[in-house]
Amino acid sequence: MVKRKTSKEILAEAFREVAAKKNIDRITVQDIVNNCGYSPATFYRNFSDKYDLIAWDHTRSVAEIMGRISDSYSWKQTLADGANWFFSEREYLANLFSHTSGHDSFIRYMTEINFDALKKHIVTVSGKENLTAKEELLIRAYCLGTVCLTCEWILGKHDATPEEIADLYESSLPEPLKQYLIRKQR
């Protein structure tokens, strides 16, 4: 069976194509729908505005990467995949950060996505029903720091390879969280 793209996926692709040629703050809903043959009504059935589309598009991509964490898929590999994905998307993301209020929105959305994925994984691995307030704050601080640094890296403020970024993120993991994310070598 052939998987067909959803309207949301088609609209996101249309937006990305327009964003490759135009500053994001100047893109209109009409530009997006003209690029894929949809009507504005179809756009608004799926998204409240272009920022909602941007958030949905990045949320699904990052959530898919974060969702890979498992016994057979290491934290380090998850970090490397994330860094490589951000590196491949850096031109689009730099346009997003530089030409919208998207920088702050991106930090909020990505922090929440990462927080939710890490919390879920740690709850599962630990066998706990709930994490302590301190554990949740450590997860939030870690996610906020890594997301902010990722934004700076995308904007060219730090010269590092995706592998160096992934190594930095692994080594900066708070000590109390390492037991849940970094497997001991046997």
Query: What number is the mean pLDDT?
Result: 88
CATH architecture name of the largest domain: Orthogonal Bundle
At the first level of CATH, what is the class of the largest domain? Mainly Alpha
Give the name of the CATH superfamily of the largest domain: Tetracycline Repressor, domain 2
Percent range of helical residues: over 70%
Q: What would you note in describing this structure?
A:
The mean pLDDT is 88. The protein has helices at 7-19, 29-36, 40-46, 50-66, 75-88, 90-98, 102-126, 133-154, 162-171, 175-181. Helix 1 crosses helix 2 (29-36). The chain folds into 2 domains: 1-47, Arc Repressor Mutant, subunit A (Orthogonal Bundle); 50-181, Tetracycline Repressor, domain 2. With 186 residues, it is mostly helical. The protein has 10 helices and no strands. The radius of gyration is 18 Å and the shape is globular. The N and C termini lie far apart (42 Å).
Quick structural gist:
This protein has helices at 7-19, 29-36, 40-46, 50-66, 75-88, 90-98, 102-126, 133-154, 162-171, 175-181. It has 186 residues and is mainly alpha-helical. The longest helix is centred in the middle third of the chain and has 25 residues, at 102-126.
Please give a handful of descriptors for the protein shown.
single chain, mainly alpha, Arc Repressor Mutant, subunit A, 186 residues, Tetracycline Repressor, domain 2, globular, 2 domains, 10 helices
